Amino acid sequence: MMALPYITEHTGFTGTVYATEPTVQIGRLLMEELVNFIERVPKAQSASLWKNKDTQRLLPSPLKDAVEVSTWRRCYTMQEVNSALSKIQLVGYSQKIELFGAVQVTPLSSGYALGSSNWIIQSHYEKVSYVSGSSLLTTHPQPMDQASLKNSDVLILTGLTQIPTANPDGMVGEFCSNLALTVRNGGNVLVPCYPSGVIYDLLECLYQYIDSAGLSSIPFYFISPVANSSLEFSQIFAEWLCHNKQTKVYLPEPPFPHAELIQTNKLKHYPSIHGDFSNDFRQPCVVFTGHPSLRFGDVVHFMELWGKSSLNTVIFTEPDFSYLEALAPYQPLAMKCIYCPIDTRLNFIQVSKLLKEVQPLHVVCPEQYTQPPPAQSHRVDLMIDCQPPAMSYRRAEVLALPFRRRYEKIEIMPELADSLVPMEIKPGISLATVSAVLHTKDNKHVLQPPPRPAQPTGGKKRKRPSDDIPDCKVLKPLLSGSIPVEQFVQTLEKHGFSDIKVEDTAKGHIVLLQEAETLIQIEEDSTHIICDNDEVLRVRLRDLVLKFLQKF
Amino acid sequence: MDPECSRLLPALCAVLVDPRQPVADDTCLEKLLDWFKTVTEAGPSLLLLQENPCLVELLFRVLKAHDPRPRVLSFSLRLAGLFAAQEDCFQYLQGELLPMLFGESGPLGGAAWTAPTVRSGWLQGLRSLAQHPGALRFLADCGAVDTIFSLQGDSSLFVASAAGQLLVHILALAMRGPAEGHPSPQGCDWPACAQKIVCHVEDSLRSTATLQVTQALNVLTTTFGHCHSPWTQGLWVRLSPLVACLLEKDPIPASHSLVDLLLSVARSPVGSSDCGLWETLAQTLSHLSPTQAGPLALGILKLQDCPQALKTQAFGVLLQPLACVLKAAAQAPGPPGFPEGATGDSITVDTFLSSKSACVGLLCQALAHLELLQLLPQRPSPWPQAPLLRAAVAILRFCHGSAAPTSDVGGHLCAVLAGCVRVQRAALDFLGTLSQGTGPQELVTQVFAVLLEYLTSPDSSPMVLKKAFQATLRWLLGSPKAPSCCDLDPHTQLFLGELLPVLRKRLCSPCWEARDSGLEFLTQVTRHWGGQAAFRHALLASEVPELTGQLLRDPESYVRASAVTATGQLSSWGLYATPTGPEHPEVQQESLFTELLHILSTDSEGFPRRAVMHVFTQWLKDGHADVAEDLEQFVARVLQAASQDLDWEVRAQGLELALVFLEQLLGQPGSRCPYAVALPEAAPPATLAQVLQALCRVQLFEFALRALFDCDRPVAQKSCDLLLFLKAKATPCGGPQEAGASPDVVSVEAALQRWQAGEQGQPLGELEPEAVMAVLRSMDLEGLRGMLAKSSDHMEKSPQSLLQDMLATVGVLGENEADCY
User: Fold this and answer.
1) 3-class SS of residue B176
2) What is the pLDDT of residues A423-439, one digit of tens each?
3) CB A378 to CB B404 under 8 A?
4) What ipTM was predicted for this assembly?
5) Parallel, antiparallel or unpaired: strands A220-223 and A267-270
6) Cβ within 8 Å, pair A170-B416
C-alpha cells in the first residue's frame, strides 16, 4: 500500500485499483504520517553522486551493500497520495468483481489487519488463491476466511511472519513485563511504532494489564500526526472487526477499549511533541510514536532525550526493521533495548494446518519459504512442507502456473436449447447435434440460434450487413459406434463379396476385397472406402458400413 | 429385616411390577440391591423369602409381564442371584424360577434382551449365584456358558467385561474341590465346565480375529491376577505354547492385552516356578514395537525376582528412545554412556521418523516410565544418572529449538519437537525427578542453563513454566551446600543471581498463571532458604519482595492468594520489605498485618481469605515476633474477621488458629500425640483463671460457641473438639467452679438456644469466665461430637427411609393425596 503512489503516479498506470475501505483509510493515514514526518525536515540538498556504482563500492558498510540504489526515489507528496487514492475502487469482502469477463476476483478477510485481504482469482474451471499477510490468531480484525480458499488449483502463499521463532503471545508478555519493570523503577518506555495495526492490540493488552501491574497512574502518550484519526477510525469500522468487537457496537459500546483509556485520561494523543504535549508531559511515562526505523518522526527526539539514562527502555515491536541497525546511529546508548517483535502473520505450523484444511492442488511461494532460515539451517520446521512440494519463485521471476486452461464455459440461449432433440446413446448419456452461431464478446461465449435460411428476396434489395452470416447448410446426420470387423466381413460375404482379406494395422483394420480391387480402411474415428471410380460399389459398401453405426 | 421394612416391602414390590407406575431411578434400585446384599449376608435367604413371599411373587410377576421394563428386569435378575447364592435357597428357587430367569425360556431370547442393562443384570445375577457346586450343574444344564462366551463380544463394554469376569469366576469355582490338587496340564481330569472354558480360550487364542484373541487374553489376565491356586500352573503349561505362537505373528495381535497377561502371570506364583516364562518375556520384549514394549519393560523392572539378564534387557528397552536422542544430539561421536542394549536401535529410530505423534508418544512414554522407575527401591543399579541427565537436557533443547544437530535424525527430531508442550512437560518432570541423584558439575551447570532458558523464554506456555519452576526448585534444594555447611555453594549463588531477575519479570507477566507459578516458587524457596545469608542478600537486592507485596492487589484471586502466602513466608523470615525501608521494621510488619487483615475482611474471593488465615495461623505457631508483641489483640482481630466470613473453610481455619492459641496458653492436648516425650516447659503455664480471662478478652468463646451451631458440619466439629479440649483442661483444676453460683448462665444459654435455632445475629455480650465454664460443663459436648461424626444423611440412609422414599415418589403412601384438591 505504501508504494502505491510510485506505481500509479510514475509508471503511466491507467488501470483500476481495488481495495477495501479500511485499507484505503488506514493506508492514507500511514502515508500521511510518512509524508508529514519527511516534510517536517526538508533537505536543502540531496546527494546522489554516491549512487554511482564505482563510488558506492568504496563506501563503508552498510552503504556499499545497499542494492539497486539507482532505483531509490524521493518520498511522494500528499498530492500524489491523493491522486493515487482516487484511482481506487472500493470493494467489500466476498464481493465478486468481473475482470473483462475473463476472471472473477474476490477479496476475503485475511485476519491480519482491518480490511486486509486475500484474493481469489477464478474462471469457470480454474481457481487461484492469493494468500498474503494473513493471521489465524484472535486479534481485532475479522477472522481469516479459510473455507473460501478450498478447491484451489493453485495457492500463492506469501506474507508469512518475518520472525517465525517469536510467538506473538510470548512477545506481548515480554512487552508488558519489561514495560512494568521500567516504569516501576522510575524509567520511561519508548515504543517506536506505526500509527495503526498492532498498536490497537497493545493498547488493549495494556488496558487489561495496567491495573494488575499497579500502573494505573502512569500516563500513556500516543504521538503521531494521525494519532487522533487512527484511534477514531478504528472504532467506526465495525463490520471489519472480529465478532466480539462487532457485538459491542450493538450494545452500544466502543469496540476497542482504548476509548476508555482516553476517557479516563490514561491514554493521551497528540499530533506532535510541540504544543499541548509539552504542557501535559510528565514522567515516568510510556510513549508510542513513529517512525519504527528511528530515522525520522518524533521518536528521534525521545531517543535523544532518554537515550542517556539506563532507567529508560526502548521496546521494538514492529518486525519490519532490524533493531540493531535502527539503533546504530544512537550508539553509545545507555537506555535498555528490548526486542519484542509482534508479528501475527502465519507461521509455518499454521501454514501446515492451513494447507491441510484448504488442500490446494499446488502451492506457489517465494523461494525463501522452501528452505530453513540461513541463520538456523537445522530448523527444518521453519519451512513449508507440503505434498506435492511447493513451487518456488524468485524476485521478478515470471512463472507459469502449473495448470492448463482446457475448458471454456459456453452459454446456450433458451430458444436454442428448446430446439434440441437429445437422443440417449447410453443409459444416462444423451447427445444432440447443435447448429448455432457462437457469439463471443468480453470473454463470454454464447450459442445463439442460427439465422433462418435466407428468404428469397426478389433480388432487388441491397444486401444488408447481417446477410454476411453464412447460410447454414442442412447438415448430414452424425454417426457413432464402432464396426465389429468379423461381423462386417460376414455381412460382406452375405452380400456376395468373396475373397475377403483382413489385415490389422496400427490404427485398426484394412478389409481387402481383392476381387473388386477395393480397400476399406476401418479406424477408430474414420472409415475410408477406396475403389476405382466405381461409385455404385462405393455406395453399396457405404450403406453396409452405415448399418453398423448409429445416426443422430 | 426389621418389621417396618417387611411391612413396606409388599407395596414396593407391587409398585415395581405395575407398568403404570413410574420406576424409581437406577440409584434407588442400586441402593435396594445393596441393602438386600447386606440382609442376605447377615442371615439365611430362604427364611427371608419365606417370611416375605412378596419377593418371590415379584420375580414371577416380572417374568410373566408382557413387556417388562428393562431396569426392573435387570434388578430382578440380580436380586434372584443374590438369593440363590446360598445353596438351600438355590434349591428352593431352582425348580421353576431360576431356569425361567436365566435359562433359554427367560429374557434371553426376548425383546428385553436388546437392552444392555438386562444383559448386564443377567451376568451379575449369575455371578452372585455361582457360589456352590449346584450352581455349576445349573449353568451346564441351562447352557449359560455358551451365552457368556457370546457376550464376551458384546457391543456394550460393561457387558463384555462382566462376561469375561464371570468366565474367570466360573472357572475358579469349577476348579475348586477335587481338581484343585495337582491338575494335569492336559486337563483330562478337569471338570467338564472348566474344560469347556479352557477349550474356548484355546480356540480364541488360535483365532485370526484380534478381538477374540483379546478376549481370551483378558480372561487369562484376570485368572492369573485373581486365582493363585496350583491349578493355574497347569493352565499356564497348557496355554503358554499358544501364547508363544502369538509372538510369531506379524503384527502381534492384541499386544496390549498380551503384555498385561504376561505381567499378570509373572506376578502370580506361576511366574516364580516357570523358567520358560522369562524366555517368553525376553522374546516378547524383542518382538514388540518400542511403544508397545515400554509398559512391558516397566512391568518387568517392577517385578521383585526376575533374572538379571531380563532386567537388563527391559531397562535397555526403556532407555532406547533416550539413547536415540543422545545419538542424534551428539555434536561429536562418543559413547552416550548407557548400558549395553540401550544404544538406540534402528527400530526406535524408525519409530522416531515415522510420524510426529509416534515420536512424541514414544518419548513421553519413555520419560514417564523412567520417572516412575527412578522412585522405586528396585530401580536398576547402577542408575545411569549422567546420560539420563544429558538426554533430558538434549530433549529440552530440541523442544526449545536451541539444539543444533548435525545428523538427519537430529534434524528430524528438531522439527518434530520444536515447541512441543507435551514433551516439554514430560521432560521437565523427569528432570525434576533426576534432582534426587547427583551428576558431574559440568552437567549440573547445563541443567541449570536449560532451566533458565525455559524460565526466560517468552514462548514457554504457562504449564511449561510452572513445571520449569518446579524442576528448578527441586534442583536448587538438592544442590550441595558449601563446605562450611551454612551457606549456598558458589554455583547456586551464581544461578540465583540470574534467576531472580527472571522471577522479577515473571511476577510482572500479564499472564496470571505465570505470576502465580512465580509466587509459588518464591514461597517454596523462601521456606527452605529463608535463613541462608546468600539467598537473603540476593533476594533483598532484587526488588522481588516489593513486587510480591504489589501482587496482594492483583485482579486474579489465585494470584492474590499466592501473594498472601508468599508475603507471609517472606515476613516470617524478615524478608518482606515495604518502601519505608529497613529502619522501621515494626511499621512494615504492622502494615503487612493490616493489609492481610484488610484482605481477610474485604476480599470477594475465598482463596485469598483462606490463604490469609493460613498465614496468620503459621505466624502464631512460629511465634512471629510482631504477632507476639500484642498476641491478644492479634488473635482478637483475626477471630473477629473470621467469624463473619461466609466461607466455611475460613471459619474452620479460624478455629484452627484459636486452637493454636489455646495450646500455647494451656499446653499441648495430651491426646494429640500419645507417644510424644513431654518436654520440660520453659515457663509455668498461666493459671487457668488468667487463661480464661484472656480467652474472654479475645472473644474466643463467642467465636467457638457460634461455630458450634454452624450450618457447615466441619466447622461445628472443629469447634466441638476445641471446646472439649478446653473443658478437659479446665475441669480437673476446679478453680472457677467454686467461684460462685454461675451468675449469668441463663442469659448465655438463652443466647445459645437462639443460635441453635438459627438466629445467629444475636450477640452474646460480655462473658464471665465462670459463666462460660458452667455452660460448657452443662453442655453434652461428647454427645454433640458423636452426632456430628455421623454423616449428614445418616437419617435418610436407613433402608426404611429408602423404601419410604421410593413409595412416596409414586404416591402409594397416600401422603400427597391431601394436596390434590
Assistant:
1) coil
2) 887 888 888 888 899 99
3) yes
4) 0.72
5) parallel
6) no
